Amino acid sequence: MTDNGKIAFLDLVSVHEELEKELVAVFQKALRTAGFIGGPMVEEFERSFAAFCETRFAIGVNSGTDALRFALMAAGVREGDSVVTVANTFIATTEAISQAGARPEFVDIDDRTYNIDPEKLRSFLEQQCSRDHAGQLISRRTGRPVTAVVPVHLYGQTADMDAIEELADHYKLVVIEDACQAHGAEYFSNRDHRWKKAGSVGKAAAFSFYPGKNLGACGEAGIVTTNDEEMARHIRMIRDHGQAKKYYHDIEGYNGRLDSIQAGFLSVKLKYLPSWNQSRCDHARKYNELFAAAETNIITPYEPSWSKANYHLYVIQVENREAVQTALSKENIGTGIHYPIPLHLQKAYTNLGYRLGDLPVCEKAAGRILSLPMFPGLSEPAQARVVQAVIRSVQRTTADRTATVSA
Length: 407
Ligand SMILES: *Cc1c(COP(=O)(O)O)cnc(C)c1O
Hints:
Elements: H1 13-18, H2 20-33, H3 40-53, E1 57-61, H4 64-74, E2 82-85, H5 92-99, E3 103-106, H6 118-127, E4 129-131, E5 137-139, E6 146-149, H7 161-171, E7 174-178, E8 186-189, E9 194-197, E10 204-208, E11 222-226, H8 229-239, E12 243-245, E13 248-249, H9 260-270, H10 273-293, E14 307-308, E15 314-317, H11 321-330, H12 360-366, E16 369-372, H13 380-406
Parallel strand pairs: 2-3, 2-6, 6-7, 7-10
Antiparallel strand pairs: 1-11, 4-5, 8-9, 8-14, 10-11, 12-13, 15-16
Helix pairs in contact: 2-9, 3-9, 4-5, 4-8, 6-7, 10-13, 11-13
The structure holds pyridoxal-5'-phosphate.
């Protein structure tokens, strides 16, 4: 690689070139059987993904957003409910909550993991909610019943699920994991004395197979995982117009099915997921080492002892994020910001009535985070160049600022 050769934030082309033969074979099989919707390719993928997540069931749907919406609906979240989640996530998390008829309510995050802070969840439940005459937990902000919590396993690292599950048990909340970034991530549960896969902890979990995810389709796709047979049955109905038998509609549902061709592609790619995730973890370790060797105030990702992250993203914090991002872009290095504006401050959610200052940890992080190139095929020289460029631009902006202050 030359010095100013492009380092992509995410290279999706090479991986598909390598798999072209296998993927084309799937396409041909689908053409020759005209099996485009449902059928053996979908069922086979559902079985293998359930096995991968160590859950009893997996129900393929057409996106991660629908996976989350259907899981919430099947879990009994209803029109008028309040559902607790975080504001530093992709808007799909809260769209799914709204589309299920509920209203999102936000609690702040842990400043090291970027995931929901269980102590803040506790204080929300203890201090900002009360019980009505029937014993139902009511949010004082919204006057609505609080019925569910959606922890987001952001950047591919699980939230602190034991603490969340304990609160959920106590307050009778259903837990739906947003595992859309967390394929293969693991959590050590002290309650169960074992490592558990993301997607196997809550009542149900939603995964996305958007092309850029650790396991991506060649188009749109998602899946719900659960150990609950009734949930699985219900979600199968919801995704298919409310029918268990063709043209016998027990409820109104959606057209939310997973394409057979996408399921076939995903079965091919699932075989490689463990080694892809391993490569991402190796790259993360390499980045950590390179940053640690330089004395800077760049904050690298924190992985608690109870977590095995899949490094969907490698996110650092720097003080002058815009300058650093511009400098990297000038050196042909792709970066991202996940996410620049927390949801409670988005125009789409002015109706929720939040203000700047309501979620200080999340707001502070949003101004400092920067996602560096991360994908299985990332090379060591490329990583070294990224780290040098980051360090150089951090030092330069610090020097500029010192000069300005003393001028
Ligand atoms: C990608 C993503 C989703 C939505 O998935 P789609 O398949 O794009 O609908 C939801 N939540 C999070 C955290 C995501 O990263």
